[in-house]
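QA checklist item 7 of 12: single-chain prediction sanity check.
[x] sequence parsed
[x] length recorded as 503
[x] structure emitted
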Amino acid sequence: MRPPLTRQSTIALAATCLSSLMFGLEISSIPAILPTLEHVLHADFKQLQWIMNAYTIAVTTVLMATGTLADRYGRKRIFLISIAAFGITSLICGLTDSVAVLIVARFLQGASGGAMLISQFAILSHQFREGRERAIAFGWWGVISGIGLGFGPIIGGAIVLVSSWDWVFLIHVPLAVATLLLAVSGVQESRDPEARSLDIAGIVTLSLSVFCLAFFITQGPDLGVASPTAIAIIGASFASFIAFVIAERISPRPMFDFSVFRIRNFSGALLGSMAMNFSFWPFMIYLPIYFQAGLGYDSVTAGLSLLAYTLPTLVVPPVAERLALRYRPGLVIPIGLFTIGLGFILMKAGSIVEHASWLTMLPGCVFAGVGLGLTNTPVTNTTTGSVPGDRAGMASGIDMSARMISLAVNIAMMGFILVEGVQSSLGKRLPNGAVAAPLRSLAERIAAGTAITPGPDMSGAIMHQALVEGFGWVMLYGGIGVWLLAGISFMIFGAGGFGRTSR
């Protein structure tokens, strides 16, 4: 009996999984070291946000371009280049002692990480085509990706404790070398014979639109939401998006082929991609702050508490793949999204009880993690499996663009809601004469978990209550938002997405 995976395919799967591990670690391990970066590099709350957002925005910037390049010049070739670039940029991140240089290096790291990520999806889709081996490959990819994203906070905190913050970045240098060696020997080269040109107009307009939107969300309150500068920035975002749509409509070979949205399974799964990064993943950035500043845990205890949120994402993906094969993704994906939303509502309920602890947060964390595990790999497999194989790079690009745009925007949006919620709570409890600017500055420090001592007109209890209320609004935003997207996804899948598959 032929084994489900050949030796070469196993090596290729190891390369793609190891690259996904690096990508996930570089997203989820950084929140654990943000307090250290604030102290060592003297970074403020907005700079800390940009250390996170520079990575995700850069990922979004290169996704579609990489998909097009991979289709034209070869997915293996682009994969190898991106792995090498990721290792080099990780080295730069680890060697710098300037917050400005770190933000720029994080942008370059995100660009190489995005190229690496989009290539691995296209490689998996091309090299694993049969139902059984495809399910095995994407199942393992989901587990390893979950390890990177789920254990990142613990790994980041542990590295800081036993060594220093720079090794959170430097660890990727030997990992990149190992991945490169595996990819050289295991990955098959593939390309789209019809891909001939690069859609520069689409790349520039989409990237500018996302960057301006994230900048508006993070910087708008300081600029003044109704100020001419803020209005110009959000106007540039909308104008760039309209230009992007026009550019893709008139391009003979667009990187963003709108015709794929006529495929119901693709569109329904794409909503699932956006919903996961609307809620679960951006909240991963802020949940360690709640455990440390809200519940008073140290970094290691906070990381261990996060396991309830992340461990289900490792266990559930293989089960989710089997469920998707049996009951079709049109049912499994919306149910997974609904479960994520239920988890957020339960977390909100657990955070406001008297004597809140990791135990009161446990049910919500577990439900959110189970929901993510049910959704993640079926979404990826469905988006890439719904289009012809020669457009796998393009489909992966659209999928990951949806994920990273949602992630970048919602990291900024959750940060905005958190600060606004904290500021609103403080405003209700402070004397009427409190000045708005210092109040917002204090709210930002509380939201970042760095307001160590209370001011002269308030107690630590007021500050703690403000933090809890701010997080309550963030959890409500994540829960209701993912429920709305789950409902839309359910309707888009339609009757064709439900029912059992034939056996």
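[x] summary fact logged: The chain has three domains: 1-190, 199-254, 269-503.
[ ] second reviewer sign-off
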